[in-house]
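Quick one:
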Amino acid sequence: MSIEVKNVYKYFGEQAAVKDISFSVKKGEIVGFLGPNGAGKSTTMRMITGFLPVSSGEIYVSGLKVGIDNLKAQQKIGYLPENNPLYVDMYVKEYLEFVGRIYKVTNLKSRIKEMIEAVGLELEQHKKIGALSKGYRQRVGLAQAIIHDPEVLILDEPTSGLDPNQLVEIRELIKSIGKEKTLMLSTHIMQEAEAICDKIVIISKGEIVTNKSTLELQKKASGEFLFVEFQQEVSKSQLKKIKGVDGVESYNNGFLLKSNSLDELKINVSQFTQENNLVIMTLNTESKSLEEIFKDLTV
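Output:
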């Protein structure tokens, strides 16, 4: 595994920002790290990159233990922080040369040229960073993150604050870079992860609440549910006993019933209401969006 996070906790004083989280990212995989604001995304990413020590647990990057082999591990990582700190008074090429020298990149001039072409900065390369739009600044941030050819790329909210056109361009750029790297990006936008990522890890209140492939979550979202609302009070345990019910969730003033055959389930629900002298107020088919799944998991 390129990234392994094992039973990690992070405390600030007595407050646990991250609680017993574990997940892994394979080589060549693009993983979306999602959660609402304050869920622990940036804290986790800072621990992976070695900028923040863990309180307990272990993190490995390309087989190197972060905190023990910090410098070696950091050489394997390209990192774009959320605020994308850049030296705005430096020219684009000047800044990339500065970063390249820190990493002791060989053949630096040709590498800078390669990075400028890779992220689409050809027309902006002779400008000062302070004169660039936010979209082009993000491109500079991506270029500095990959200039030393890292095995692992960590991007914290890489599309935050971009306009729709810039958003599409940066997404495509990330997908292109991700073909050759192990890439982990944080976001709180489900559509973003769906458009870019192979796998989605969701954190809420410092705990991992799901760790599934994007395809699995899409299948869950595309599946249909039977929404039923009764006049009388009915419990989940009663509904779970109905033949054909695979799952029950509270939803608005009623319940969402999951089944492989909704037509058959409608018949069974009708039979259940007759046997228990219940009155159905609402009965219709519903489907859940990925955003609703995200909300269910993080509320």
